[in-house]
Design a protein that fits this description.
about 675 residues, 44 helices, disordered C terminus
Length: about 675
C-alpha cells in the first residue's frame, strides 16, 4: 500500500532513528512536491544516519530549481551544522539543469556557502569546473582562492599547473602554500628560480622541499641539504632530485660525499628509526655518500627484507670498491651481521670473483655458527665446487630447518655443475631422516632410473615430508614410467603427501592425464580441487567438458575449474552459464570480476533477483557503470529498489539511481 505524505511525516517524527531512516525510502512513492519537502526536512535530522539516507533519496528524484534553491539556503544557514553538511553532500549529487543552477548561483553566494558550492563544482566532472576554479585563484577572499587551488590539485589535470604556478608570486602565504600543495599533488616540475625566493619563508616547509626535489635542478641540492636535520622530507627530496637526471644525481652524490659528520649522523639515525619511506631515503643517501664508515651499518640494515634490495642496488653502484670494503669488514663481524655481509657479497660478485673467493666461503661454511654457515651455503650454491659437498651433506642433517634447506639447495645447484661428484657422495647414504628430505631435491637433479627402487622404498617411511620429497624425485627421474607408483600415493594417510602426489603427476605431464581423470571420479575436498588444477596443466581431450561439469560443484571446485580452463588457454567465458547460475554466492561474485564485460546487461539484471544479498549488491555495482547506456537498466534498478529489503543493496541502488538520474 502506498503511504500518504501525512503518514511519512509522522514516521519522520518517530523517536527511533531507524524508523525515520526507513520512512525516507518510501518518499519516491509520494508526489514529487511532497517527497522533496519531506526529504529536505530530513536533511536537518539529529541523527547522521537519517541525514545520510535523506541525501541518497533526494539524489534519486530531485533535480530541479526548487531542490537547488533549498539546498543552497540550507548551506547558508549556520545554526545546524548537520543540515549544512548534509545539504552540501546532496548538492554534490545534482547534475544536468540542477547543476547549471549551482554554477549560475555561485556569484550570489559568499563565505562558507560559496566555498561549499565551489567544492561541489570543483569535485564534479563538469567541463566548466576547471575554468571556474582558475578564476577563483584571484578571489579577494584568500580562503576561497586557497580552496580553489586545493581543488585544482585534486582534479589531477596538469593543464592547471601554469595558473597554480602564477600563485607562487602572490603575497598571501596561505595561497602560496595551497598552490605548492596542489602542484606537488599534480607532480608538476617547477624551475628552481621560481622556488628559490620562497626558501626564506619557513611556512612552506615540506611542500617547498618536495617541489625543490621535483625541480630536478642541481642548484636545489644545497638548499635541500640545509634542512635535512630539521625535516625528514628533505631526505626524500634528495631522492627525488637524484632520480630526475644525471646532473642532479651527480650533484646529490657529490654533496653527500663531502657532507659534514653531523648531517651524516642525521641520516644514520633516520635510517635506523624513521618511517619506512624515510628510512629508505636515508639508506639511499648513505649509499650515495660512499663513506667506508657506513659499510657495517648498511650490512646490518640489509638484514631487513624491505631494505635488502636497496642496499644491494646501492652497493652495486660502488663497483669493485664495495667488494673490497666487504672483504675488509668481514674479519670484524660475527653472527647475523657476518651472515648478512656474506649474503651481500654473494649477490654482488660475478662468477669469476665468486670462484676466486670460494675458499673464503668454504671457511665460513665450516663455522660452528650455523647462521654463518647457512649464509656461506647460499654463496657456495653459486660458486662452490665438489670440495664442499661433504660438508653440505652434513649440514643437510642439521637440527634447524633453515640450515638444512640452504644446504639442500646448494647441493642441488652444485649437482648441476658437478653431477658425478654429487651422485657419488649420495651413494650409500641413509635417507630415512630429515637429511633425506633435503637430499630428495638433490636427487631431482642428479638421480638416475636405477635410483628409483631405493627411493620408492622410502614411500613407506614414517616421515611425511620424506614421502613428499620422494614423489617429486621419482617423477623428475622416471617421468611417465613413474605414473603408477606416484598415483598410489594419492591414498596416503597424510593429506600433504596426497597433494604432493598430485603435484608429481602434474610434473609428469600428459602421460598422467588419464590417471588424473580417473582419480577425479572418487577424490574429494582439497585433493579433488588439486586434481582439477592438475588437469588444466597436463590437458586431456575431454578436459573442457569435464571442467564445465565440475564448475557446477562447490565453490572450491568451481574456481579450480576456472583456473584449469585458463591454464588450458581456453576462454572462461565458455563457462559463464554454469558460473552465473552457481548456487554459491562467492562463485558468482568472482565470476563477475573475471568475466567483467562479457556479462551482459540482461544477465546482470537477472542477478538482481538472486537469493544472496551480496550477489545482488555485486550486480548493482556493475550495473552502475552501465546506467548511462540506456533506460532499460535504470528501469530495472527502479523495479529492484521497490522490492529490495536488504539495507546495503537498497542503499547501493539508491546511489546508482542518484548518479543515473543526475551526474552519470
Amino acid at each position: 500500500m502506498i503511504p500518504t505524505p501525512e503518514q511519512i511525516a509522522a514516521r519522520l517524527s518517530d523517536p527511533s532513528p531507524e524508523v525515520r531512516r526507513r520512512a525516507l525510502r518510501k518518499l519516491p512513492q509520494l508526489p514529487p512536491a511532497d517527497a522533496l519537502r519531506l526529504g529536505l526536512l530530513a536533511l536537518g535530522d539529529g541523527d547522521w544516519r537519517v541525514r545520510k539516507e535523506a541525501v541518497v533519496v533526494l539524489a534519486v528524484f530531485g533535480d530541479g530549481a526548487e531542490l537547488v534553491a533549498a539546498l543552497l539556503e540550507a548551506i547558508e544557514q549556520a545554526d545546524n551544522v548537520g543540515l549544512r553538511n548534509a545539504a552540501a553532500e546532496a548538492l554534490s549529487r545534482v547534475s544536468g539543469p540542477a547543476f547549471d543552477l549551482v554554477v549560475s548561483r555561485l556569484g550570489e553566494l559568499s563565505g562558507t556557502s560559496r566555498k561549499i558550492a565551489l567544492e561541489v563544482i570543483g569535485r564534479s566532472g563538469d567541463e566548466r569546473a576547471e575554468r571556474i576554479l582558475v578564476d577563483h585563484l584571484a578571489h579577494e577572499d584568500v580562503n576561497m582562492s586557497a580552496a580553489a587551488a586545493e581543488l585544482l590539485g585534486e582534479r589531477g589535470n596538469l593543464d592547471a599547473a601554469k595558473a597554480l604556478a602564477a600563485c607562487l608570486d602572490c603575497p598571501q602565504p596561505m595561497l602560496v602554500l595551497a598552490a605548492l600543495q596542489a602542484l606537488n599533488r599534480l607532480g608538476a616540475k617547477l624551475p628552481f628560480d621560481r622556488l628559490e625566493p620562497l626558501t626564506a619563508a619557513p611556512l612552506y616547509g615540506s611542500e617547498l622541499l618536495t617541489a625543490l626535489g621535483r625541480s630536478g635542478d642541481p642548484a636545489a641540492v644545497h638548499v635541500v641539504l640545509k634542512h635535512v636535520a630539521d625535516d625528514p622530507v628533505a631526505v626524500k627530496a634528495l631522492t627525488l632530485l637524484h632520480e630526475s637526471g644525471k646532473a642532479a644525481a651527480a650533484a646529490v652524490e657529490g654533496a653527500l660525499g663531502v657532507a659534514e659528520a653531523d648531517l651524516l649522523q642525521v641520516l644514520v639515525d633516520l635510517a635506523a628509526q624513521g618511517d619506512p619511506l624515510e628510512r629508505r631515503a636515508a639508506v639511499l643517501c648513505l649509499l650515495w655518500s660512499r663513506r667506508t664508515e657506513h659499510v657495517a651499518l648498511l650490512v646490518t640494515l640489509a638484514q631487513e627484507e624491505s631494505l635488502h634490495p636497496v642496499v644491494i642496488e646501492g652497493l652495486a653502484m660502488w663497483g669493485s670498491s664495495a667488494i673490497a670494503l666487504l672483504d675488509s669488514v668481514l674479519p670484524r663481524m660475527h653472527g647475523l651481521q657476518l651472515a648478512s655481509a656474506i649474503g651481500l657479497m654473494a649477490r654482488l660478485l660475478d662468477d669469476a670473483g665468486g670462484r676466486r673467493r670460494a675458499a673464503l666461503f668454504t671457511a665460513y661454511l665450516n663455522s660452528a655458527d650455523l647462521i654463518v654457515a647457512t649464509a656461506a651455503a647460499g654463496a657456495l650454491a653459486r660458486f662452490g665446487d665438489d670440495t664442499v659437498v661433504a660438508r653440505l651433506i652434513e649440514l643437510a642433517g642439521a637440527g634447524q630447518e633453515r640450515v638444512r634447506r640452504a644446504a639442500g639447495h646448494a647441493l642441488a645447484q652444485i649437482g648441476v655443475r658437478h653431477p658425478e661428484a654429487v651422485r657419488a657422495a649420495l651413494r650409500g647414504l641413509e635417507i630415512e631422516s630429515d637429511r633425506g628430505v633435503e637430499l630428495m631435491r638433490v636427487y631431482q637433479v642428479v638421480g638416475r632410473p636405477e635410483d628409483v627402487p631405493c627411493l620408492a622404498a622410502a614411500l613407506s617411511s614414517p616421515l611425511p615430508a620424506l614421502r613428499r620429497g620422494v614423489l617429486g624425485a621419482i617423477a623428475s627421474i622416471a617421468g611417465p614410467a613413474s605414473v603408477d607408483t606416484v598415483s598410489l600415493a594419492m591414498t596416503d594417510e597424510n593429506a600433504e603427501v596426497r597433494m604432493a602426489a598430485v603435484a608429481a603427476l602434474s610434473r609428469i605431464g600428459p602421460a598422467a592425464s588419464e590417471t588424473i581423470v580417473s582419480a577425479l571420479r572418487t577424490a574429494e575436498g582439497p585433493l579433488r580441487s588439486a586434481l582439477i588444477r592438475a588437469l588444466g596443466r597436463v590437458g586431456h581431450p575431454e578436459a573442457p567438458a569435464i571442467l564445465r561439469g565440475l564448475a557446477r560443484e562447490s565453490a572450491e571446485m568451481a574456481m579450480a575449474s576456472v583456473e584449469a580452463f585458463q591454464s588450458l588457454g581456453l576462454d572462461p567465458g565458455e563457462m559463464k552459464g554454469e558460473l552465473l547460475s552457481h548456487p554459491e554466492a562467492e562463485v558468482v561474485k568472482k565470476a563477475l570480476v573475471f568475466l567483467d564485460a562479457s556479462v551482459t546487461d540482461a544477465e546482470l539484471v537477472a542477478l538482481l533477483g538472486a537469493a544472496a544479498w551480496d550477489v545482488r549488491l555485486a550486480a548493482v555495482e556493475r550495473l552502475s557503470r552501465r546506467v548511462g547506456a540506456g533506460g532499460a537498466v535504470a528501469e530495472a534498478l527502479r523495479g529492484a529498489l521497490s522490492r529490495e529489503e536488504d539495507d546495503l543493496v537498497h542503499a547501493a541502488i539508491e546511489r546508482v539511481l542518484g548518479v543515473g538520474a543526475g551526474k552519470g
